[in-house]
């Protein structure tokens, strides 16, 4: 959710300095890519890094690469021999993300996939200790259904944008498929006995889901 500039600056002042490479990536994104607000940014990125370091995953799946900021944040928690699969439908962003994966030293640990995540996820025949969902909001339910059996007991799924700029508490427009998708996903997770979950009202809302 939106917060005051003063409060955000206070939070930033208490965090470790942003990785210079991530600063460069953020500047590049805001200068050259459409909808740069999709970038995770320093505050959310630091949360993703902390969660990944706590899980210390061998395998990560990210749905929605964008320009690679969140993938780099998540990759910082990987085990030494671990790797991260990241899926992006926009092929125009592939080279930019790859450039920064290489600069970050993760070129051998980050595996890029270009295309529809709903088609790609079934081809990944492995388990994931950590999943980050940040793709098409209309497909969040489908993503969850596709990944839940690929997450072992104790594994974590993080879903971004689950408060959707506050639209989740407004009277939903039946033609607003993005909001409808988020609402359906939030309710599905709440009703699923296989998982427990909590919500961080950070930025646009992060749901942290743990498989029982």
UniProtKB/TrEMBL annotation:
UniProt keyword annotations, A-Z: Methyltransferase, S-adenosyl-L-methionine, Transferase
Q: Which GO terms describe its molecular function?
A: O-methyltransferase activity; S-adenosylmethionine-dependent methyltransferase activity
Is the keyword S-adenosyl-L-methionine in the record?
yes
Coiled coil stretches, renumbered: none
Tell me the PROSITE patterns matching this sequence.
SAM_OMT_I
Determine the domain of life of the protein's source.
Bacteria
Q: Which residues cross the membrane?
A: none
Entry-linked InterPro entries: Cation-dep_OMT (IPR050362), SAM-dependent_MTases_sf (IPR029063), SAM_O-MeTrfase (IPR002935)
Listed under GO biological process in this entry are:
methylation
| Gene3D superfamilies with a match to the protein in the record | Vaccinia Virus protein VP39 (3.40.50.150)
Question: What is the name of this protein?
Answer: O-methyltransferase
- Name its species: Sunxiuqinia dokdonensis
Q: What is the lineage of its organism?
A: Bacteria, Pseudomonadati, Bacteroidota, Bacteroidia, Marinilabiliales
